[in-house]
Amino acid sequence: MSSPPVTGPATVRERRGGPGPARFRPRRTPPAGTARPRRRGVLSYWRQYLAISPFYLIFIAFSFFPVFYSLYLAFQRYDGLGTKQFVGLQQFEFLWNDPVFWLSIRNTLVIWVLSTVPTLFGALVLATLLHSVRRFKGFYRIALYVPNVTSIVAVAIFFGAVFSNNFGLVNAILGTVGISPVPWLSNPWLIKLVIALLMTWMWTGYNMIIYLAGLQAIPTQIYEAAKLDGAGPVRTFFQITMPIMRPIILFTVVISTINGLQSFSEPQVLFASNAANQNLGGPGQAGLTTLLYFYQSAFLNNDYGYGAAIVWAFFVLIIVLVVINWRIVQRGRKS
């Protein structure tokens, strides 16, 4: 005598769409007798929003609004006191034909290349050396990072005294070995070199700390395996360390591009740029950067509309260079 087939959730195979194992879905409605939790509206979190509101109010007042107001000023002729006059694209047309603007762009790009390449290379070398140090590692970190937290005005004054044409320390040392004084702050290329050295001295320690953190995150087992396979230090660095560090290098390249193109205080302090000294950037305006030219146009010549046009054109240039650097590093990563 055969028993009747037992049917249940585990044995029922006929389902919509064809045979298959039974599927159970969780109950969407709460069981009877349980209270459904009340939904809290946005206004119920007003205390939390009130606690974080000061940051957003300050950001809107001092960052968000000035940015878009400068874009509005780029299409106006305004001296800061009179009425604004809408001029459309005339500011940008004049900017395109302004030789001083293109001179400032060339100076900025040259200083950026002269400072960024040694900064990143030196930071990577110092981070690699510091990573292998066993004693006094904390002292070396602090000593190399101190220039980044030093006032840029104080550093620029110090470099101006060290590289002075007549009484500078560098020329005094060169004189002891029979070398004639070098016009560090008069020659167009040497002016750019001094500014680049100043920026390199300030930012190498910052990038070194970032690289050191990346090196310390690499597992030691990888280096031990490479050593067992017979890889030397050079091969290990280029075939293991560099590929793993590539995202960090990409980050430092982008940050260094943005910071390096915004050089302003260095040439301003070195050459005492103010309302009484219209020869910004040193002799021949060899150290005139784009932001320094913006400062001259907006705050010395009181042409705020043209100054806003300079800033926005320079912003587009920074975005283009950042994207180019990003693509170059990413292409090397894929290859």
Describe the structure.
By secondary structure, this protein is mainly alpha-helical. It has a single domain (91-334), classed as Orthogonal Bundle (MetI-like fold). It is 64% helix and 2% strand. It contains twelve helices and four strands, in the order E-E-H-E-E-H-H-H-H-H-H-H-H-H-H-H. It has helices at residues 46-73, 90-96, 99-132, 137-149, 152-162, 169-176, 188-216, 220-228, 233-261, 265-270, 290-300, 304-334; strands spanning 14-15, 18-19, 76-77, 85-86. The protein has a two-stranded antiparallel sheet. Strands 3-4 form a two-stranded antiparallel ribbon. Helix 4 (137-149) crosses helix 7. The radius of gyration is 31 Å and the shape is flat. 24% of the residues are buried.
Short synopsis of the structure:
This protein has twelve helices and four strands. With 335 residues, the protein is mainly α.
- In DSSP terms (H or I, runs of 4 or more residues), the helix count works out at 12
Which series of helices and strands comes N to C? Answer: EEHEEHHHHHHHHHHH
Find the CATH topology: MetI-like fold
* Biggest β-sheet: strands ordered side by side in the sheet: 1-2
| Class derived from helix and strand content | mainly alpha
**Can you tell me the CATH architecture?**
Orthogonal Bundle
The whole-number mean of residue pLDDT values reads 83
